[in-house]
Amino acid sequence: MFGRQPKDDKPTENTEIPDIIFPSESEIEDAAQEDTELSKIQVNFQPQRELNNPEVVNIVEKISSIVSPYFIVVVGLVLYEDNFWLGLLLITVGILSLLKISWGDITGFFREIKDVFSSDD
């Protein structure tokens, strides 16, 4: 009364295996020859590429260049409590990229400071 009902071991669906017709060896060889001919045509055909990227790619690049510095700063702020140096590094990199300061600008700044101190002779 409270036990499980016995399972029906007989499948209710009629499972018939469909007949599969495999291609003959000559058809396989013909297809392989056609594939090699097509690959030769595709290798020799190189369309001229436009100098500009598609419009969607340009839009995504612009959005990424705007959003990524903020993301780096936010990740740096989150990591700041757990790992001070890594957080500080990410915050610094994010702020420098927000201000559009490149590595060349930083090295030029240090060279100017070096020149100021070395020209005091």
Molecular structure report:
This protein has 121 residues and is mostly helical. 64% of the residues lie in helices and 0% in strands. It contains four helices and no strands. The chain has helices at 25-44, 55-80, 84-98, 103-118. It starts with 24 loop residues before the first helix and ends with a helix.
Task: Name the poorly predicted regions.
Answer: none
Distance between the termini: 106 Å
Number of strands: 0
Report the average pLDDT across residues: 79
Class based on secondary structure composition and strand pairing: mainly alpha
Order of helices and strands: HHHH
Strand content: under 5%
Major sheet, described briefly?
A: none
- The global form is elongated
Layout of strands and helices, then pairs:
Blueprint: H1 25-44, H2 55-80, H3 84-98, H4 103-118
Keywords:
121 residues
Short description:
The protein is mostly helical and 121 residues long. It has four helices and no strands.
